[in-house]
Amino acid sequence: MNCDRYSGTQMDCDRYWGTQMNCDRYSGTQMNCDRYLGTQMNCDRYSGTQMNCDRYSGTHMDCDRYSGTQMNCDRYFGTHMDCDRYSSTLVLIWTATGIQVLGYSDEL
């Protein structure tokens, strides 16, 4: 395990599954985490930039949580959902049957 915890430089950690996790925790730069399923999760948690998370289902989720930009979530059903939760921009939802739903939403 290579760790530079406090200076904000890259840290490679094989904590849970023996898979690689690159973490720049404090500087807001990219962090790749294979925490739960051994799938890749790229996280820029504090700067509001893109975060790709395979947290629960092993599917792909792109999240920009704080800046109100686009977030794609496959959290529970493994289907594709593009969500802009805070800025009321266009929401695209792909259902399990492949049907596309277009609409506007403030909160999903």
State the main characteristics.
108 residues, mainly beta, four-stranded antiparallel β-sheet, two-stranded antiparallel ribbon, 0% helix, flat, disordered N terminus
What does this structure look like?
With 108 residues, the protein is mainly β. The chain has one domain. Helix content is 0%, strand content 25%. It has strands spanning 11-12, 22-23, 31-32, 42-43, 51-52, 62-63, 71-72, 81-83, 90-94, 100-104. Strands 7-8-9-10 form a four-stranded antiparallel sheet, with no helix packed on it. A hairpin with an 8-residue loop joins strand 7 (71-72) and strand 8. The protein is flat, with a radius of gyration of 15 Å. The protein starts with 10 loop residues before the first strand and ends with a strand. Residues 1-108 have low confidence and may be disordered.
What is the topology?
Blueprint: E1 11-12, E2 22-23, E3 31-32, E4 42-43, E5 51-52, E6 62-63, E7 71-72, E8 81-83, E9 90-94, E10 100-104
Antiparallel strand pairs: 1-2, 3-4, 5-6, 7-8, 8-9, 9-10
Give a quick summary of the entry:
This protein has no helices and 10 strands. It has 108 residues and is mainly beta.
What portion of the residues fall into strands of 2 or more residues?
Answer: 25-35%
Given the helix and strand composition, which structural class is it?
A: mainly beta
* Radius of gyration over all CA atoms, rounded: 15 Å
Q: State the helix count.
A: 0
- The overall pLDDT, averaged over residues, is 38
Binned, the helix content reads under 10%
Coarse shape: flat
Main sheet properties? 4 strands, antiparallel
